[in-house]
């Protein structure tokens, strides 16, 4: 790759050139982002995952740019039109937009108005006019009147010349650059309802006559307007004032004093704008703003997903899981500490004649399977089922937890679920998923398409390839950050381990089934088709809790075992002694173990890991309960203070579950007593919060909440002290209502 590209990346990311080149070399060798950031700190200068991923993505962008550059140079060269000056400009182009602008005059075109005019021999007249000097325009144009060439009048000759000039103007690289800037910096999105669609398009009512600057339009509104347009409810324009665009073009194109030639050029300018430049720029700007909106929405989704996946696990405990329902009953399963299905049944606690029978069955199952926790899905009948279970007088050590069941039904109908439970129906599989995600959210949620988990923002409207790539990165980062117990992990969980993938994950499970638990990391090398490279990438992230070597349960990479063994030997103790004694570890002088292949960053990581081998980095599980007696929206009253759980975060606020089957919205302006620009600064997914009910709209299933200490206090005038966004940035009311319905309704 061009050295200038490495320099550019180093400058953009504020890192050293060597860090970039060495990281790219590792990536090109097949190393993963988690492996590089965790085990190659000496090579990269301790770059973190975000920096490594940024280098990877930027390198790919620049390589794509170079690929397109080569194709353009080849095309122009084949046309025998490549000059040294043009080649220099093409090689210097730093963006795809500039490259395409330079290529535009040479790009194979369909038969345009300018093409037809050239065929009629009108290019010399166009050249004469474009010089913009004073001459007898009518007399000059009359020379091109030719019936055989279908030029029947001077006006037809002038029109053809203007068509050619308009194309030249449209292909002016500098003009296109400045016009692009004008569209982005001065343009506006303008949306209007399609006449006759007012009733059907109510969810977009605030976009019926909406306008805002392109430059500052937030991603969720860009995506909302585009969705309204796609659904044929809205008409959407994105452009600056036409007079401003024409003035810019005249400033660049028009030369000298007014004369008849200049007038013809001005006519051509207006035609070039309306017919060629405006549609082209609008398409570009819409692609640019869509890409920008996608990136922001994907970023929000990925961060929400990370927080959800890294939710606190209950751990290895016997769990009863209940998928609640009224008419069809509550599907109930019992799971062992490793998530194995011990038994299942259906209870009917909401049918009067079966309440006692259901209660007796729950008590029996709790005692039989020594249940330590009961997980209840938060769908239909969840609060009623929770009240029923809590009324049974179960042993105090049995905790009752409401679990977000988003995506459980998707899992239950999936190939993964059918493979795990071929002899059980959808209802049993769904209940199992609810119980397992209480025990270990990460291990269970990796089995579900992230788009079905319910933490996204317009996830179906964004670039699906970019979304998948980002979410895969997020899942891989979470899985490798926590580490995977190789003897109990599912194929799906193993798939996300650095260096593995679906095929090797399947081979590991098969080997484990045929040969019993792995006794050491070294034994993993015996898995068919798992070569040295895959082992190098994966080994540090795979744990063997009761392995022969105590280091196998830690994040210390096998390539560093020898240095740990040397540390222990120098102290005259075993490795296990070094791992269990802080006093012994304090005696280790790290600088004595620095070598060509291992430096202080890795040695410091090793010592930190020896002090907590295999410890789960996730937070400790805490029991949470919703407000007793508040089970449905009709139970809510304005002013109520309630406990809740953050379920989703967007750019305009956070959704909170308060236990009424419909999440409420805490708008950005109500997230804190101070001004908040980014909700992620204040809340995280799964965070327990206290909220105040501000609004209840039963008809639209809309709940407005606040996290302010005094949400009904009069807001201060001016400034940002009240936490309110500037008026021009206020969220359209209908847009929020639409999102409440579309994004976070409790749909199964």
List keywords for this structure.
YqgF/RNaseH-like_dom, 5-stranded mixed β-barrel, alpha/beta, structural constituent of ribosome, 30 helices, Tex-like_dom_sf, RNA-binding transcriptional accessory protein, 15 strands, disordered C terminus, 748 residues, mRNA binding, Tex N-terminal region-like, 47% helix, 5-stranded mixed sheet, Arc Repressor Mutant, subunit A, Nucleotidyltransferase, domain 5
Question: Summarize this, please?
Answer:
InterPro entries: HHH_9, NA-bd_OB-fold, Ribos_protein_bS1-like, RNaseH-like_sf, RuvA_2-like, S1_domain, S1_Tex, Tex-like_central_region. It contains 30 helices and 15 strands.
Question: What can you see in these coordinates?
Answer:
Helix content is 47%, strand content 11%. The radius of gyration is 33 Å and the shape is globular. The longest helix is centred in the middle third of the chain and has 50 residues, at 260-309. Among the domains are: 3-76, Arc Repressor Mutant, subunit A (Orthogonal Bundle), CATH 1.10.10.650; 113-302, Tex N-terminal region-like; 319-439, Nucleotidyltransferase, domain 5, CATH 3.30.420.140; 633-742, OB fold (Dihydrolipoamide Acetyltransferase, E2P). A five-stranded mixed sheet has the order 6-5-4-7-8, sandwiched between helices. By secondary structure, the protein is α/β, with parallel strands linked by helices. It starts with a helix and ends in a 6-residue tail after the last helix. Helix 8 packs across helix 11 (154-170).
